[in-house]
Amino acid sequence: SSITITIKMHRLLKTLSGMLFIIVALIAIALGYLKTNSNIRNRVFASLCNSLANPNDTKMMNLRCDEILDKSRINGNVLEIGAGTGINLHCLHNNTNIKSWIAIEPNPYMKHYIDGYISKLNIKFQTKVLHISATKMVDIQSDSIDTVIMTHVLCSIPDPLPREVLLEAHRVLKPGGKFYIMEHTIADRHVKPNMNTFQLLIGPLWKIIGDGCEFKPIANYLDDMKHVYKSVTYQKFQAPIKLVIARDHIKGVLIK
């Protein structure tokens, strides 16, 4: 009868609501735990980065290796700020113009993946991983680096520290040295207003999952460096990635 069907539907909806509540509660607890426990958050983020930074992703690796980290660009003593899992070593491993590679990576759980790439790719040049902040690279002498590279890092550095990182990169670069950068950025609110709004709404959740990563106006940081570096040029583009919310990118070159 219709009464029996109604009762069954009510019970089903009640059960589904209860299950949904439990799921949401568990997610909230997990996110809260990640937010307050930096050690677990670093471990989870390192694992997540290793899963997302896929060397078999041909389109993204071609972008990294052929446009950002081309052999003709990267040479001498190379400093990578925020090396992460070491994914960029796939672009650098057979570059005979590189003398040494120093990686700045504050997350200690990334080193396991970096060491794996160094071994797997049979890296010939000298390598060193420093677990220090890129805002104060005291272990690196001024005017000692030929090339600085940084990919997907500034989003995780809280304001106003991105400026300090860019200034430190300028300090360690040799005169004429070049700084190559690629970052995801917040969508232009005039060009993509809906995406911009969505990024702002999901921002707090994104920040927890992404270990501090935020949707930032990266171009503003670069513009601020035009009075510091001899030359600052950049270009906005859409990265060939499946994660639509993070497709807005920017790539640039800063010359000391």
Task: Briefly characterize the structure.
The protein has 256 residues and is an alpha/beta fold. The protein folds into 2 domains: 35 residues; 208 residues, Vaccinia Virus protein VP39 (Rossmann fold), CATH 3.40.50.150. Helix content is 43%, strand content 21%.
Task: Describe, in plain words, how this protein is organized in 3D.
With 256 residues, the protein is α/β, with parallel strands linked by helices. It folds into two domains: 35 residues; 208 residues, 3-Layer(aba) Sandwich (Rossmann fold). Helices cover 43% and strands 21% of the residues. It is built from eight helices and seven strands, in the order αααβαβαββαβααββ. A seven-stranded mixed β-sheet has the order 3-2-1-4-5-7-6. α5 links the parallel β2 and β3. It starts with a helix and ends with a strand.
pLDDT averaged over residues: 88
* Distance between the first and last residues' Cα: 81 Å
Please state the overall shape, judged from the principal axes of the Cα atoms: elongated
- Give the % helix: 40-55%
* CATH level-four homologous superfamily name of the largest domain: Vaccinia Virus protein VP39
Which CATH architecture of the largest domain?
Answer: 3-Layer(aba) Sandwich
Organism: Didymodactylos carnosus
Keywords: Membrane, Methyltransferase, S-adenosyl-L-methionine, Transferase, Transmembrane, Transmembrane helix
Pfam families: Methyltransf_23 (PF13489)
Transmembrane segments: 12-34
